[in-house]
Specification:
By secondary structure, this protein is an alpha/beta fold. 33% of the residues lie in helices and 17% in strands.
Amino acid sequence: MTNATAEPEALPQLTNDELGRYSRHLILPEVGMEGQQRLKAAKVLCVGTGGLGSPLALYLAAAGIGTLGLIDFDVVDSSNLQRQIIHSTSDVGRKKVDSAQEKLNALNPAMNVVKHDTMLTSANALEIFAQYDIVADGTDNFQTRYLVNDACVMLKKPNAYGSIFRFEGQASVFATEEGPCYRCLYPEPPPPGLVPSCAEGGVLGILPGIVGVIQATEVIKLILGKGEPLVGRLLLVDALSMRFRELKLRKNPECPVCGTNPTVTELIDYNQFCGIAPEPAQAATVKNGIPQISVKELKARNDSKEARNDNFLLLDVREPYEYQIAQIGGKLIPQNDVPNRLGELNPEQEILIHCRSGARSQKIAELLKANGFQKVSNVAGGILAWSDEIDPKVQKY
């Protein structure tokens, strides 16, 4: 196996403090002095400092990685704390890279933490990735996963991949010379909205800890050149049954990025590739034929409903457990139940549909329109926008 870091003659020496700190590594024949020096020489980039990035970064810092890059543009929210263990309550509102850097250097003051406080894009990915030996993908959306994959393939950087949803996780190592890449497994992204985000579907807080630690283990094995990395293997984790399964993956010779004759030779527009390109400016108030109303307009119509005899129905298409967290009124019919409960709705009545963020409600508005309901509108931004713009006492989640 090819090591991902410097050759032995270029390896840094360990200080007396490091000899004591890493003594349990040094007595492992598979690590030893040279292996620990390789860890010190290594440069690893964590893409994201959230659920996966938190345990990943903490364990890499503890293991003695010399340089750890963090890329994230988000700020800490209280809803993160259920799983993003690198952040604490006092960090709410802080930039995640600042919060993470503080905790990592508290754990390992000698480690060089490089903060990239920016969104990863096609314009900056190659420049940032080129500074590192290995990239660990802790992202939570398809467009960034494809971007990370393609940049890693083009730069020949191993990609320690992980993903999570509800009670299930995946891990693998992509973009090595001998193994497949993420596109070999998933040639095309799913249609927009088909796979709910963790914010919509939820995630067991412990699950990213399991998967993130697996990612950290793979990074360390790649640096040491020891063991069997998850190259050509997809590890599936089911936390509810606590079962692990493994699928064999093969490099696709027709892959447009890592195949024999690649057709994707430069980074592309990944939002467009995943079907989530921004709406044209002139269509800002209409999306796929569905009128979009703001939460301010909804509030105004609620406030004057009796005076105007405004006979509209507010339809909430979230799940019952979400309704227990936050409500702004309306008839609750979960999105998956709507097709079987159309008889409860009046096709002649105006229906305003809302959910947590506006994505599910948009889908249901399109479904209703396809079934003959002409007076349907989507409440843009949903519960989140209502909490931000109307009533902060409505709980965000």
